[in-house]
Specification:
The chain has four helices and no strands. With 172 residues, it is mainly α. It has a domain at 19-132. The protein is elongated and about 95 Å long. 15% of the residues are buried.
């Protein structure tokens, strides 16, 4: 069933790829470990734990966004922008409420948490951008390659010989 404006993709449409989430998680694990170690040595081990919490929040937010946008994209391309914007607004509201609810004198270092979230979001954005820029993405789905003669009973269509109109033919 096609929605208004043809928002439902055809059954042979490519699925939404969430491979950037794996790339982001794999790239952020060592960076988070090194960051937590450095912060732990320079500041305190509770600040190092705060780095781990901040990195987990960023990873969770990117994974949630990716899943929601992919789900919306499977329903139809027209739903991806509203899903992305809606998810972003909800995430910002949730993180603002959580940051406001945290007491200033708790073991969670709010300054470290804030900088971790900012640095993590920038890091994930770079990883996601690199992942997209290094993929071969098509504006439209490329046609299937022709089937060679003899496979599955298919025959290749006869091709007329290539003749250059500039070259005179010879009789012989």
């Amino acid at each position: 069933m096609s929605g208004a404006g043809g928002t439902t993709p055809p059954s042979d449409a490519p699925t939404w790829d969430l491979g950037f989430l794996r790339a982001g998680l794999l790239a952020s694990l060592p960076v988070t470990a090194v960051g937590a170690l450095v912060v732990g040595v320079l500041m305190s081990w509770s600040a190092a734990l705060t780095v781990l919490i901040g990195a987990a929040v960023v990873a969770g937010f990117f994974c949630l966004s990716g899943a929601v946008i992919a789900f919306a994209g499977r329903a139809g391309d027209a739903f991806t922008l509203p899903a992305a914007l809606g998810t972003f607004v909800i995430k910002v509201a949730v993180i603002a409420a959580v940051f406001e609810a945290l007491p200033a004198d708790s073991w969670v270092d709010l300054r470290v948490l804030g900088w971790t979230v900012i640095a993590g979001a920038l890091f994930w954005s770079v990883v996601q951008g690199r992942w997209v820029w290094t993929r071969q993405l098509y504006y439209v789905t490329p046609p299937a390659p022709p089937t060679p003669t003899g496979e599955r009973g298919a025959t290749a269509p006869a091709q007329p010989p290539a003749v250059d109109p500039e070259t005179p033919t010879t009789r012989g």
